[in-house]
Design goal:
Number of strands: 0
Distance between the termini: 60 Å
Order of helices and strands: HHHHHHHHHHH
Number of helices: 11
């Protein structure tokens, strides 16, 4: 008698293939460690992206890993504004690794996923991120930036990164306000929409680095 076909078998096999590729690039046979590093990478990158960009990234993942990607996601609280330094600290904490190991681990995951995604897709998604965080994810932070304790032009790069973060935050707040003020049919009382849009825009502005003395995600 023929064995019944597992309807989820193909999805599981594809997820294992992706995990094996990442493990090979990490140079480890520890699949638990590989899964933990991949999961942390996906969650941190996901939370730094707008909803539409996160959805584009998730669409490239196998079904099983797509479920991992969306685990614990709160669309109303993204994008969370953080820089490369905060990313390194959060990655090290959640993955259980040393902060010194984070750039290499993050870059390895990036390279592995880049080889599995559609050509150019990962670069397109990460283009919305600040330059310092992109360099961290791509493994270029140490080689490109850390030449001396104070490389030439470092202050200019810092100012440019801060400007990118500010413009991104203001643009997102403006999009929220516009959506709230649009005359769209809804069951919500019309007078409540502008107030809620203003509150959400205010939350986004407060999440900008330097706007308040709190960790990313605090409202």
């Amino acid at each position: 008698m023929a064995q019944p076909i597992d309807p989820l078998g193909h999805a599981q096999d594809t997820a294992h293939q992706w995990l094996n590729l990442i493990a090979d690039r990490l140079g480890t046979t520890d699949r638990q460690f590989t899964y933990r590093v991949l999961r942390v990478w996906l969650h941190l990158v996901r939370d730094r992206l707008r909803v539409d960009a996160a959805a584009h990234l998730a669409a490239q993942l196998p079904a099983v890993l797509r479920g991992v990607f969306y685990e614990g996601w709160v669309p109303s609280r993204v994008p969370v504004r953080f820089d490369a330094a905060w990313f390194t600290e959060a990655f090290a904490r959640d993955a259980g690794v040393s902060p010194a190991d984070v750039p290499a681990l993050a870059a390895t995951v990036f390279e592995g996923l880049d080889s599995l995604f559609s050509p150019g897709q990962l670069d397109h998604v990460l283009a919305a991120m600040p330059a310092d965080l992109r360099r961290e994810l791509e493994g270029r932070r140490c080689t490109d930036d850390v030449r001396t304790s104070a490389p030439p032009g470092s202050s200019d790069r810092a100012r440019l990164t801060a400007l990118e973060n500010s413009v991104e935050t203001l643009a997102e707040a403006l999009r929220v306000l516009v959506r709230g003020l649009e005359e769209l049919p809804t069951e919500e009382p019309e007078q409540d929409r502008p107030a809620k849009a203003a509150q959400e825009a205010h939350r986004l502005l407060l999440s900008r680095p330097g706007a308040q003395q709190a960790s990313p995600g605090t409202t």
